[in-house]
Amino acid sequence: MMRSLWTAKTGMDAMQFNIDVVSHNLANVNTNGYKRERAIFEDLMYQNLRQAGGATSQQTSLPSGLYVGTGTQIVATVRNHSVGNLQKTDGPLDLAINGDGFFQIALPNGTTAYTRDGAFQVNSQGTIVTSSGYELSPAIQVPQGTTSITFAKDGTVSAIVNNNAAAPIQVGNIQTATFINPPGLESIGGNLYLETSASGAPTVGTPGTNGLGAINQGYTETSNVNATEELINMIQAQRAFELNSKAVTTTDQMLAKLSQM
Amino acid sequence: MDRLIYVAMSGAKNSETRQATIANNLANVTTPGFRAELASARAVAALGGPGMGTRAYVVQQTAAADLSPGIFQQTGRDLDVAIRGNGWLTVQTSSGEAYTRNGSFAIDSSGLLKTHSGEIVQGESGPLTIPENNRATIAPDGTVTAIDMANPTQTVEVGRLKLVNPPDAQMEKGLDGLFRQRNGETAQADPEVRLASGGVEGSNVNSVEQLVNMISTQRHFDMQIKLLTTAEQNSRSASSLLSLNS
């Protein structure tokens, strides 16, 4: 069958995937701590139909060969881990990391997940948890009768109990983690990431030191999706899809002519 | 049988190959650093001795890749670079050095600078490794600097990307889509090549041109089919003339 049909199909496939990536970004334009993704394309292998330099006689050789490419594919989706806007919410348990680092979250199965979404809450036992109810790690317990809670830039958490402003109680320390290759983290949804062999092991430290971003109370980090850029990407993908579907139609018409002969 | 059908068939077969090349260019209209393939045709005299010089078969060939630059697309990533003007980035493959215009890099878990398809990026003195907890930036001359996140005043020069600029006529696209020198030698680093960081170079496929080429190839194919039909009609008329019943 004609090669161009399949080549154009790879183009349509890739563009459809690209639209998937773009629409996922647009869908998460309001998700706290969401990092936008971008699809990376690569051309597929080439077929060598006629070798350049092949002999055409004892004295002469072909000046140029015939190589036919077989299309395109998506090789990777790369997450851009740049910091999103820090939006003031005044929520006492809304935390944003200004700079590098991830909050560590204890999953129910015992593994640690990482997130940039700092919209925390307190559960019925007084433990600080994410919106999905997973505990912050190391766990921080808010004492009974707490009237105000303060998160310092370095992650120190202190609470004022029973309006006793003179004696704040230190209830714990938040530690954040960095990775040598954050785009290598695995996304598992729920704003959470898991460590992989590509991301490397986490380096855990005190916020605000060793290149880790400081913690800001009363802020959440918004998504870093740029809607304009995504729309342009969407138009580009749509047009590229159309071009490839045009190639399919043209090839189909050629085949039709052939079969009507 | 009239040999016209073989000549027409060679034309139709080669428009099919040309169509495949155009479809490949269109499929790669968004591939960073992609270079469009140029298709050309060559006449080969049909064997038949004197008196048959009016007939020639066509042979399709891929003359070279179009090496004109694509547009710069901003991505905002530290590890995306595009080459300004002429020049190539160097990557390591299992068959030695190869050259590409696709400057979208990634760091693996050991800090090694790689392309997204996993080839190691070649520096002037070997591969480049970014130390842990460092942020890499690439200067316009290809110098890769690692800035310690813990102490931003602390910078380490990791090395310099191997940027080369052999003559365009020397460059040939391989079956993996990467470029190599025709003579098989590795190119010398050229200190004059300049980069722009924070973006990648788009594909240089001109979609309008490719679409027009595709339509003209389609029409060309149709004409060859028409010739085949005409040859069949001629042959039918001839056989009816010779028929005893008529």
Automatic annotation (TrEMBL), chain A:
Residues 217-261 form the Flagellar basal-body/hook protein C-terminal domain. It is found in: Bacterial flagellum basal body. GO terms for cellular component: bacterial-type flagellum basal body, distal rod. Keywords: Bacterial flagellum, Cell projection, Cilium, Flagellum. It holds the Pfam family Flg_bb_rod. One of its GO terms (biological process) is bacterial-type flagellum-dependent swarming motility. Residues 7-35 form the Flagellar basal body rod protein N-terminal domain. Residues 96-159 form the Flagellar hook protein FlgE/F/G-like D1 domain. It comes from the Bacteria. Belongs to the flagella basal body rod proteins family. NCBIfam families: FlgEFG_subfam, flgG_G_neg. The basal body constitutes a major portion of the flagellar organelle and consists of four rings (L,P,S, and M) mounted on a central rod. The rod consists of about 26 subunits of FlgG in the distal portion, and FlgB, FlgC and FlgF are thought to build up the proximal portion of the rod with about 6 subunits each. This is Flagellar basal-body rod protein FlgG.
TrEMBL record, chain B:
Residues 5-35 form the Flagellar basal body rod protein N-terminal domain. GO terms for cellular component: bacterial-type flagellum basal body, rod. The keyword Transport does not apply. Residues 82-146 form the Flagellar hook protein FlgE/F/G-like D1 domain. It is found in: Bacterial flagellum basal body. Keywords: Bacterial flagellum, Cell projection, Cilium, Flagellum. It comes from the Bacteria. Its main location: other. SUPFAM superfamilies: Flagellar hook protein flgE. GO terms for biological process: bacterial-type flagellum-dependent swarming motility. InterPro entries: Flag_bb_rod_N, Flagellar_FlgE/F/G, Flg_bb/hook_C_dom, FlgE/F/G-like, FlgF, LlgE_F_G-like_D1. Residues 197-241 form the Flagellar basal-body/hook protein C-terminal domain. Belongs to the flagella basal body rod proteins family. The basal body constitutes a major portion of the flagellar organelle and consists of five rings (E,L,P,S, and M) mounted on a central rod. The rod consists of about 26 subunits of FlgG in the distal portion, and FlgB, FlgC and FlgF are thought to build up the proximal portion of the rod with about 6 subunits each. This is Flagellar basal-body rod protein FlgF. The lineage of its organism: Bacteria, Pseudomonadati, Pseudomonadota, Betaproteobacteria, Neisseriales.
